TrEMBL record, chain A:
Name of this chain's protein: SGNH/GDSL hydrolase family protein
Superkingdom of origin: Bacteria
From TrEMBL, chain B:
Alphabetically ordered keywords of this record: Acyltransferase, Cell membrane, Membrane, Transferase, Transmembrane, Transmembrane helix
Lineage: Bacteria, Pseudomonadati, Bacteroidota, Cytophagia, Cytophagales
GO biological process: alginic acid biosynthetic process
Localization per record: Cell membrane
UniProt GO cellular component terms: plasma membrane
Organism name: Pseudochryseolinea flava
PANTHER family noted in UniProt: ACYLTRANSFERASE (PTHR13285), PROTEIN-CYSTEINE N-PALMITOYLTRANSFERASE RASP (PTHR13285:SF18)
Main location: membrane
Gene Ontology molecular-function annotations: acyltransferase activity
Topology within the bilayer: Multi-pass membrane protein
Domain of life, per lineage: Bacteria
Name the UniProt record assigns to this protein: MBOAT family protein
Length: 307, 469
């Protein structure tokens, strides 16, 4: 029995030491490569979290990323603008990003682009949050928000390798590759025009969709943080080509939450009707983004003038 | 409790350490209590259903042993009927009601019956079959009836294999609970290795492929033949790694405590015939059907070929129905039955092909393609979907679906490559040369798998596919 226990002890000691060593060294290599990336959404997030000092910041998912032409807005306002939008992300990600940069450099104005179904429950909204993992061990603000969505992470945060889970190839490929994204301050234009016919939905469903209270709380915290740091907040819903002849139940949750936080929602969802300005039903193309960004800049100017 | 959950990572070492600290006579009770806790993590009060099954078969076993002649058969029948009745109510009642209502509606008969609002107790089909194998073996005289109610309960409820097998036979398991198992490093090492392999299969391969498969199969009408074919190919590996991964964790967890469970998978996709596939796939279930259904009907020792084909078909139709209360599973079983019948018909061709080594790879691919066609019915949400998918795969090409993050597709191919490489290595080298189990190479392999799990694992993939059965 003693021999077996001795072997067990030796096995654990050697295996755990080797495992921790590999985890640490590989984690460091991955971290270095991750920070070296110059291309893609990860590189843009890296830059924004670690170095950006813009006065106006755009937050949101794909509709923010493709709709807000940073340069057009910057030229119109005479301020530096960065588009921190990221596809598929939700309010948890936006809050984490804001909290992650606010101590280093609080922006003057924040534009938060919300989707109509921003607060509707979906496990996918949590899955994509792994994009925040590479910053969790170095940025306390981001870590705090990430733990809200995934409390079990605290048991795994010892690993230096886990933050790079499912991004090995992108990290290796883009970390080693030279080159840079064309600098349009985070904005990504979509080339192409929507070709299909528009379908007008007459039935939006009567039953209310399940609302995720974590997402709603994150929105309230986002507003609270802006108020605490004296950041001007401009909440928008950006243009779409799809049309509804009914009230979408998911939209009411957004309006309700905004009302509760005493924030106005600027609904631009139907301000653009020209098919040639759209890439698909939900996204503007490059030309559309230009038109919309000019409209938004004018609204921002008007708001700051009235304030 | 799921094996791929944080609770299990705490549960397993605590239960194992207490197991070895306790004196031998108390160990079975400890594991029984642990198994109850494990099961009650799902729906706590469903343990009562399990208790009813255990109670029926415990007494049935004793009465069968004590009686003779017709009485023995009567007790066996009572036991089988009552055990299967529980399974029927929870798993098949709503299926029959749905079909009845459908037919009634079709012929304009206004007598519909309400379905039951119940959830299928997790792993019910598995422990029902394990209980049945006990009473049948007692009836056949291969196993003495267990008089200790606790030990018998443990036989049905043993936590590593409680919810998804392997479906054990009493001759293999019962005596191991009574034997004194002292801690042995070799058992620990072997067990941990199996657990790590299981986690790799589940988290790195099955759950990764599941992302692509679900995206395509859940919107099958919107995808072309190319995407559907790729999703089917991935599903073949997803279901294999999901289930074999579970089995590996179960066998490994049990091995650490010194209790051996039967092998459930033996590199099935390297089979050269469909019958070989069924000797390598879900072995505990295949042998269950062979021992208790196929052989009971006469097996292959029948006078006519048509009787043999009939026996094969019935066995596989029941096997399909065991998997799920849906016509898609029945068709899946039927297709496999047809493959085997066809194989019987052309067995001379197979014998010839087997004698020429050159054909080996072609035979493996041929069997894999046949199995994949059957998997379409297993995975599809309805027969209509399955037929549409099959048609699209063979007639249309379409654009290949790439997920929003194309990196997912790279991981899918990498996962499949790693599994194929691992299977071929085992089949060709490891198993034949019998590389010494405890070597530096083995430990390095374990560490490599853990690193792969950390870097490539999907940690929110949810439960195992076979839990629903």
């Amino acid at each position: 029995m003693k021999v077996h226990l001795y072997k067990l002890f030796r096995f654990f000691l050697i295996a755990i030491t080797i495992l921790l060593l590999i985890d640490f060294s590989l984690g460091k290599v991955m971290g270095t490569l991750y920070n070296r990336m110059n291309v893609g959404e990860k590189a843009r997030a890296n830059y924004f979290i670690r170095r950006d000092t813009s006065s106006v910041v755009i937050f949101g998912s794909s509709r923010a990323l493709y709709h807000y032409h940073s340069k057009v807005i910057a030229d119109s306002l005479g301020l530096s603008v960065y588009n921190a939008g990221r596809s598929n992300q939700s309010i948890i990600y936006h809050l984490a990003l804001l909290q992650g940069i606010v101590e280093r450099h609080p922006p003057k104005t924040v534009v938060l682009d919300l989707k109509e179904d921003e607060f509707v429950k979906s496990p996918y909204k949590y899955e994509v949050l792994s994009a925040l993992l590479p910053y969790c061990n170095t940025n306390e603000g981001i870590r705090e928000i990430y733990l809200r969505a995934n409390p079990n992470y605290k048991y795994w945060s010892w690993s230096h390798l886990l933050p790079y889970n499912s991004s090995v190839f992108a990290t290796l490929y883009r970390g080693l590759k030279r080159g840079k994204d064309k600098d349009i301050r985070g904005f990504m234009p979509l080339d192409g025009t929507f070709k299909d016919e528009r379908k007008i939905s007459k039935n939006c469903g009567t039953s209310s969709l399940p609302i995720d209270t974590v997402l709603v709380t994150c929105f309230h915290d986002f507003v609270k943080l802006c108020k605490e740091k004296n950041i001007e907040l401009f909440v928008t819903i950006s243009p779409r080509y799809s049309r509804y002849e009914c009230v979408r139940p998911e939209l009411s949750s957004v309006l309700e939450a905004a009302q509760k936080s005493n924030v106005a929602v600027h609904d631009f969802s139907e301000v653009i009707d020209d098919k040639t300005l759209f890439y698909d039903l939900w996204h503007l193309n490059k030309k559309g983004a230009l038109v919309y960004s000019q409209k938004l800049a004018a609204e921002l100017k008007l708001k700051s003038a009235t304030d | 409790m799921l094996f791929n959950s944080l609770s299990f990572l705490l549960f397993f070492p605590i239960v194992t350490i207490i197991y070895f600290l306790l004196p031998h006579q108390w160990r079975w009770l400890h594991i029984l209590i642990a198994s109850c806790i494990f099961y009650m993590f799902f729906v706590p009060y469903y343990i009562l259903i399990l208790f009813i099954t255990i109670l029926i078969d415990y007494f049935a076993g004793i009465w069968i042993e004590r009686s003779e002649g017709k009485k023995r058969k009567q007790y066996l029948l009572i036991s089988i009927i009552s055990t299967v009745l529980v399974l029927f109510v929870f798993k098949y009642y709503n299926f029959f009601i749905d079909n009845y209502n459908g037919i009634a509606n079709l012929i304009g008969w206004n007598y519909s019956i309400d379905a039951l609002a119940i959830i299928l107790p997790i792993g019910l089909s598995f422990h029902t079959f394990q209980s049945l194998s006990y009473v049948i073996e007692v009836y056949r005289g291969n196993q003495k009836a267990e008089t200790n109610f606790g030990i018998y309960s443990l036989y049905v409820m043993y936590y590593p294999q409680l919810v998804a097998g392997p479906i054990e036979r009493p001759q293999n398991l019962l005596h191991q609970f009574k034997r004194e198992n002292n801690f042995k490093f070799q058992n620990f090492h072997r067990g941990i290795r199996l657990i790590i392999v299981g986690f790799f299969m589940k988290l790195v391969v099955a759950d990764r492929l599941g992302i692509y498969v679900d995206s395509v199969y859940n919107n099958a009408d919107k995808h072309g033949g190319l995407s559907l074919a790729l999703a089917t190919f991935f599903f073949a590996f997803q279901i294999y790694c999901d289930f074999a991964g579970y089995s590996s964790i179960a066998i490994g967890a049990s091995r650490v405590m010194g209790i051996s469970l039967m092998t459930n998978f033996r590199r099935p996709y390297l089979s050269k015939t469909v019958s070989e596939f069924w000797r390598r796939w879900h072995i505990s279930l295949s042998t269950w059907f062979k021992d208790y259904v196929f052989i009971s009907m006469g097996g292959s020792r029948v006078k006519t070929k048509s009787k043999l084909y009939f026996n094969l078909m019935v066995t596989f139709l029941i096997s399909g129905f065991w998997h799920g209360a849906s016509w898609t599973f029945v068709i899946w079983g039927g297709l496999n039955g047809l493959y085997l019948i066809f194989e019987q018909m052309i067995h001379r061709v197979h014998t010839f092909l087997a004698s020429v080594k050159f054909f080996t790879v072609f035979r493996i691919i041929y069997v894999f393609v046949l199995i994949c066609i059957a998997w379409i019915f297993f995975r599809s949400n309805s027969i209509g979907d399955a037929l549409m998918i099959t048609k699209k795969i063979f007639t249309s090409r379409g654009k290949l679906f790439t997920p929003p993050d194309p990196e997912i597709l790279i991981y899918c191919f990498l996962a499949v490559f790693m599994i194929i490489a691992n299977e071929v290595f085992y089949e060709m080298i490891y198993a034949k040369r019998r590389i010494k189990r405890y070597t530096v190479l083995n430990n390095a392999y374990m560490i490599f798998l853990i690193i792969c799990i950390i870097l490539l694992g999907v940690f929110d993939g949810g439960q195992f596919i076979y839990f629903q059965f």
